[in-house]
Amino acid sequence: MALRLGFIGVGGIAQRHLGNAALRQDIQIVGHADIRIERAREAAAKVGGNAYDHCVKLLDQEKPQAVVICTPPDAHGDIEEACAARKVPFFVEKPVAVSLELAARVKKAVDASGITTQVGYMYRFSKGVQKVKELLSTRRIAMVQQHFYMPGLPTPEWWPFVERSGGQLTEQSTHMLDLGRFLCGDVVSVSARTARTRDWTPKPDSPRPGGMLWVADPFTIPDTTAMTLQYASGALGTLSCSMVPGTAWDAGFRIVAEGLIVTIDGGNVSWRGQEQGSMEAGENWVSYVLYDFLDSVIAGRPAQVPYDEGVRSLAISVAGYASVERGGKPVSTTRLLRGIL
Ligand SMILES: NC(=O)c1ccc[n+]([C@@H]2O[C@H](COP(=O)([O-])OP(=O)(O)OC[C@H]3O[C@@H](n4cnc5c(N)ncnc54)[C@H](O)[C@@H]3O)[C@@H](O)[C@H]2O)c1
């Protein structure tokens, strides 16, 4: 029998997951909950299922066996707790929250229920990244150089507010910070600086290209961040992120390990040194993280990126902004996570 799947929050990224879930014969999409009911109706018209304006209505009326949560970063907590209370496994988009306090609250509920969870850190599943993981497993790592550049400000209305999106470190660069943890181990401390390098205030003639915004009012997040990271292994790392209007998406790594320099460009990878090669991410690779979740729920086993992993990766972003507030002094992620994990 097909797995009954529900969606909570069906805005931008949910469209990708809806499309990929709909491709599977072993999944029945039973409903969608969104506080903007028209979005839930649109999703229902597209892939089937019923529309609701609250997640509890979806959970109680459709009794899904799993749900996909794609709400904004500041709209977490009650939804995951409602799922955990009903023992409904969930996939949740990154970041798991904008604060560690809230993530700790959800973690408690998840642990008590024992449900399968998955955080949407899709880069871990690229075939190229899996190959890099294998190549690095026998080598000492010295340097983890990561970046995340964006061609402007994403359009969702919550994005320019630090208390809603968490800022670029939390909302976007979390992809790279998580991938760094996956490939190179945990981070124990970070120090960071942020800057506002341009005027984001709209002027009468400001260009407003559709895909990304070049203006925002008000705008409470920094547009550029530099961070240094200390890994538990002794390796050092850096993360640079910025949103420079009209440029291009550019997310990746250089990892310097004994005998090898690895380059990650999006999901594609290459390596040089004692060995040489390259590998692509795979066809429709952005679906793998969702499919691993669905397969895990069907098989009754844990998924590869459980909720705890999302909490550990969030701690790096939170530590980064805490360091900024302390003038760039190092902040220990180990200390931030004490009592939570
Ligand atoms: N993995 C990726 O590549 C990727 C890409 C884009 C976004 N994301 C993440 O996905 C999340 C959503 O981003 P988006 O761009 O789709 O945002 P969005 O604003 O386009 O969509 C969010 C939807 O959630 C709904 N919503 C808000 N609060 C709700 C609640 N309490 N209950 C039900 N619905 C609610 C909103 O009405 C909206 O339709 C963010 O955390 C973002 O970081 C991940």
Please, could you describe this protein's structure?
The protein is built from twelve helices and 15 strands. α4 runs parallel beside α5 (100-113). The protein has 341 residues and is α/β, with parallel strands linked by helices. β1 (3-8), α1 and β2 (27-33) form a beta-alpha-beta unit. The chain is 34% helix and 25% strand. It folds into two domains: 3-122 and 288-306, NAD(P)-binding Rossmann-like Domain (Rossmann fold, 3-Layer(aba) Sandwich); 123-281 and 314-337, Dihydrodipicolinate Reductase, domain 2 (2-Layer Sandwich). The structure holds nicotinamide-adenine-dinucleotide. The site of nicotinamide-adenine-dinucleotide has 24 residues, from α1.
Q: Identify the CATH homologous superfamily of the largest domain.
A: Dihydrodipicolinate Reductase, domain 2
The structural class is alpha/beta
Following the backbone from N to C, one meets helices and strands in this order, namely: EHEHEHEHEHEHEHHHEEEEEEEHHEH
Number of domains: 2
| CATH hierarchy, class of the largest domain | Alpha Beta
Radius of gyration: 20 Å
Give the percentage of residues in beta strands. Answer: 25-35%
Tell me the number of strands: 15
Mean pLDDT: 96
